[in-house]
């Protein structure tokens, strides 16, 4: 059965890859149109095999193409084929990563990736880590470890002290939810203003911490960002670390977007001081082209992972040293194998190959930024060393341009906001793209505006 279905899988994939090249933007329909076009209804009776195959194919061909050369809408893009291979194997093997008994060698693979990431981060042998479900979960786990480090009895008695967390105004929105989930409360986060490059204002931060201490509050956690979600700014770690150490504040570096710069000798200066942080995460599915989701969280002292996430469970932990029973350090119980895809890519191309991916994406971003800066019809809103390029074209409303490009099946791109400006956000994280696809993006946009200028709002 599996063999037969894998044949069908191959047929569908072949058609899909052809279609992806010919039609990089999937024709968009309203939900109602789609439902009338393709029979999605679940019925009491089986579907005849021919219909079933046809429907599956139709579904695949009508799904937005997130890996094509015209998808710039999200912080992920492209497709690393060795990572896809690894993930397909993980699906077939279907091990939960909770224990060595059920995942065996897959546990060793996850541990090897974590070991290597810790080493590159500059953490010593006391460090450890895990593969959470994504960046939001990585941030959540770091917040819980920081909370428990203040006082482990919080786990039993609930929060007694007035805990205060800090983050830049440009930090990811998951932080606010996490403040609620952790019981610390949304109102106990201090959003620190940013300078005109979108980085946390260090002077402001220091003053705020002193003020909170004076009021008898307990500063305990700061969330710094390596690559903010909209303009891809990197917070200065070194300037902040001293005051945090002085007051025992947990420093987490959220590198979900830009954290993979650790792999590049050319760009790892953007996270100078990273070895002094308490925890760090990155999403390989954003910049490295691995399938969703591949999120890595590393912790300088892995005892904190055990303190916050281990639990005794006699029905689960029956063999082997806890070191190999990864459920002791994860939020989830049954946990998908997200390590194999990153390992299979890394094993194939080496750390040097990963560095090349990062460097190429920065190259594409610089190329796009230069294009915008040199053409007077464009206004540029962000800076060098960023994987997103934020701009406006002539005086058109960015929201309007993005929406119309989508409705007319031309391009997938989104818009963002920083301080008082709204703009188109072009994200250059598809490693399969070249200068040609970047130019093609601008030409498509320009031609589109020329043809439709009367219908576009300014
Ligand atoms: C994308 C992103 C996240 C969230 O990651 P998910 O895997 O989507 O949960 C967190 N922080 C930053 C800076 C991000 O860009």
Outline the fold blueprint.
Layout lengths: L1 H21 L8 H7 L11 H13 L9 E2 L8 H13 L6 H4 L1 H17 L6 E3 L4 H16 L3 H4 L5 E6 L5 H8 L7 E4 L9 H13 L3 E8 L12 H9 L3 E6 L23 E5 H4 L7 E5 L3 H7 L29 H36 L3 E3 L7 E6 L4 H10 L4 E7 L2 E7 L7 H18 L6
Parallel strand pairs: 1-11, 3-4, 3-5, 5-6, 6-7
Antiparallel strand pairs: 2-8, 7-8, 9-10, 10-12, 11-12
Helix pairs in contact: 1-3, 4-14, 6-14, 7-9, 7-13
This protein binds pyridoxal-5'-phosphate (PLP).
The site of pyridoxal-5'-phosphate (PLP) has 14 residues, from helix 7.
Describe this structure in words.
With 458 residues, this protein is of the alpha/beta class. 44% of the residues lie in helices and 14% in strands. It has a seven-stranded mixed beta sheet with strand order 2-8-7-6-5-3-4, with helices on both faces. Helix 7 crosses helix 9 and helix 7 crosses helix 13. The chain starts with a helix and ends in a 6-residue tail after the last helix. The site of pyridoxal-5'-phosphate has 14 residues, from helix 7.
